[in-house]
Amino acid sequence: MTDPASDRRLGKWSAPRIPFVIEYLPEVMNELLAAVSQGSVAGGVLFGTRGDASVRISAWRQASTLSDGRDLLRLLLSAKHDPSLEALQPLGWFVVHNVGMIALTGPEIEIYDGTFSEPWQVALVLVPLAGGAARAGFFAREPDGSLESQATYQEFMVRPREPIPWLRVAPWAIAAVLAIVLLALLMKPRRAAADPVNPGFSLRIQNGPRFRIAWDPNAAPIRAASRAEIDIHDGDPPAHFSIGATQLREGNIVWQPHTSDVEVRMTVHSRTGAVSREFAYLHVAAVAAAPPKADPLESEVKRLTQELHQERVISDKLKQTVKILENTIAVDKSRTENR
Q: Are 240 and 230 in contact (CB under 8 A)?
């Protein structure tokens, strides 16, 4: 583990039981420290690139709250449309503790496991101190998937970067430094391409006459997939589906929403063992209730009841007519006898 001493080298964090090194750009850590020191940030997502034995943090984005992880999920979804993050991956997340140990609480472990479950994704805990500094520590999963959450393996200090006292430097020295920097840039060889980013499959939720959860059937992860799992949070309990390669080629499934907020997590497993995961979220303005299905037995009962009612009306009229006739016959008979 090495603290960032200058802008000319990366900060590095490592631990014997963690299978990769965590690297971070000093300027990024100082930006994060400044926001934490001002009390304007409670947590967010860390972005960067990853290799076979390291991850490198080069950007971060702030979440409005960390109540249940949903804001982190929305932040991940919005990051897909951020041009400055196009070549970066979500490497994990960070959380700020005002006091206490460098440790992960129970709810934070749930967010970590539920939202950042890849073996190379990390968590960073920061505890701000007086003077603008902060205590810090990373958390990462061991090769068997276990997580030491009670305390970080390596705690380190993050201190605000001191500005260069340019006013004390002679003008000729500034010119010389600028000339050296310009010459170095002109002679610098082209950097190799960054670590490849896993291609996505454009998971989305389509709201219309038929509510669909869709993805790109021609995307590389889908073409190489053997199966996939879809988890839908749309009220309690959440729904889970396993779909095979054939259904993946169709590019969508139909879903009837139950609430106004629908969250979808899709995990695609390739034949080689690689895993790709994407999230989608949609606020449904109005959830249309499914029309009730007509019950044929109920319709038949209603029809027979109406027919029975009509027969009772006819029967009552016949009885009334018979009674009138009986009375008429009785009156005629009485008159005949009196004669």
A: yes
In tens, the pLDDT along 65-76 reads 776 678 888 888
Inside any domain, residue 332:
no
Cβ–Cβ under 8 Å, residues 277 and 120: no
Q: Residue 170 falls within a domain, yes or no?
A: no
* Residue 55, H or E segment: strand 54-62
130 located within any domain: yes
Q: Quick check: is 310 in a domain?
A: no
Range of the domain at 250: 204-283
Q: Say what the pTM is.
A: 0.52
The contacts of residue 192 (CB under 8 Å, 6+ apart) are: none
Nearest Cα neighbor of 147 from 169, 168, 118 is: 118
Closest residue by Cα to residue 124 from 77, 57, 72 = 57
Contact 89, 79 (CB under 8 A): no
The string of pLDDT tens digits covering residues 161-212 is 765 454 455 566 667 777 777 777 777 555 444 444 456 788 888 887 678 8
Looking up residue 232, the CATH number of its domain turns out to be 2.60.40.10
Residues 19 and 154 in one domain: yes
d(CA 168, CA 181): 20
SS3 40: coil
Tokens read off for 142:
């061991």
Number of domain units in the chain: 2
237: preceding bond cis by omega (within 30 degrees)? yes
**Are residue 101 and residue 217 in the same domain, yes or no?**
no
Residue 202, sorted as left (phi over 0), alpha (psi -120 to 50) or beta, turns out to be left
Q: How far apart are CA 233 and CA 9, in angstroms?
A: 43
Residues 226 and 131 occupy one common structural domain: no
